[in-house]
């Protein structure tokens, strides 16, 4: 199966073989690209506008630690097995049909993000030509541009990141330098919040929620890693540059400009070229949104209809759908559902991590087939305990107004799944023992 050819399938339904694995720096660029974009800078500015510098940094660290832990362990599982999140879910607690449900939910969320980010990109393009194109046509142009990048596979994501990541970091660094030249760093570090106050719990939720889905789909890029060591450094460096570094710059920019409008700040400090590069950096997130969505959809089609379809072709279709929806403005009303997904998706990570690293229910099957680069011949059809744990985690995270909802949903689902699987195992042992003793 071709990995990086024309209309690349990118091993969507198989393990990524060792010979197709990539150097650490290529994957690192894609990871940094997913974390260093205008949306991340906007998050930092939003925190800085409503908090002191040190309060905002504390929120960034608290939320970032959670994201780092989830990303690291899921990434290590993906790197070891060479599997995407969707396939990992098959042998990570959910079973074949359960993983298709997970894949569908992730795909819907990512297509939604694709549409929203494409709207930002299209708006910037339209503004750059003084409205000559109109927003719908701009959305079609930008949506097709990103879709064509993703159609050709992970290698093209890497090439895009090589251009966009350095450009974005240079522009942000110049803007930061411009701000420091006109403001005292000591004053910025000690100044009060310019805008309405944001509570620490709310701010931490904002940080954790901003990249939670990105953390859960870490195996989609981690499966290309050559070792767990590579995965470790990719996550750590990506977090320091993307999560902590860009957030801190956004915080300081907000304090200096006394505004949370990042695009306006970029225009004032770097001009239209800088703003354009900043918005273009949105492509780095959007191409990975579409890429992971295509992996999820191929898993759904494979499990439900027993058909193996080319991931590149799937990308083209869902990219066109997302582009059309973005052009007609439907996805502008999708943000409420995405907030809903911010609590709905984290339990998936908890269940996979508990199953893969603690309970190890399918590790013997994965271990036996890994040396040959194959997948196990079978998997459980569906695991009701995983689905119940998922729903319970979501309900508690959504309705219990305490702590950080995304963390609450993840922890509750993990605990419910762990206890439920232990009780099931104990009941199975009791039944077998009774049968061996002739007890009915």
Automatic annotation (TrEMBL):
<feature type="transmembrane region" description="Helical">
    <location>
        <begin position="313"/>
        <end position="331"/>
    </location>
</feature>
<feature type="transmembrane region" description="Helical">
    <location>
        <begin position="197"/>
        <end position="219"/>
    </location>
</feature>
<feature type="transmembrane region" description="Helical">
    <location>
        <begin position="231"/>
        <end position="253"/>
    </location>
</feature>
<keyword id="KW-0812">Transmembrane</keyword>
<protein>
    <submittedName>
        <fullName>Allantoin permease</fullName>
    </submittedName>
</protein>
<keyword id="KW-1133">Transmembrane helix</keyword>
<dbReference type="GO" id="GO:0005886">
    <property type="term" value="C:plasma membrane"/>
</dbReference>
<feature type="transmembrane region" description="Helical">
    <location>
        <begin position="406"/>
        <end position="424"/>
    </location>
</feature>
<dbReference type="GO" id="GO:0015209">
    <property type="term" value="F:cytosine transmembrane transporter activity"/>
</dbReference>
<feature type="transmembrane region" description="Helical">
    <location>
        <begin position="265"/>
        <end position="283"/>
    </location>
</feature>
<feature type="transmembrane region" description="Helical">
    <location>
        <begin position="133"/>
        <end position="152"/>
    </location>
</feature>
<feature type="transmembrane region" description="Helical">
    <location>
        <begin position="337"/>
        <end position="359"/>
    </location>
</feature>
<feature type="transmembrane region" description="Helical">
    <location>
        <begin position="380"/>
        <end position="400"/>
    </location>
</feature>
<feature type="transmembrane region" description="Helical">
    <location>
        <begin position="53"/>
        <end position="79"/>
    </location>
</feature>
<feature type="transmembrane region" description="Helical">
    <location>
        <begin position="91"/>
        <end position="113"/>
    </location>
</feature>
<keyword id="KW-0472">Membrane</keyword>
<comment type="similarity">
    <text>Belongs to the purine-cytosine permease (2.A.39) family.</text>
</comment>
<dbReference type="InterPro" id="IPR001248">
    <property type="entry name" value="Pur-cyt_permease"/>
</dbReference>
<dbReference type="Pfam" id="PF02133">
    <property type="entry name" value="Transp_cyt_pur"/>
</dbReference>
<dbReference type="InterPro" id="IPR030191">
    <property type="entry name" value="CodB"/>
</dbReference>
<feature type="transmembrane region" description="Helical">
    <location>
        <begin position="159"/>
        <end position="177"/>
    </location>
</feature>
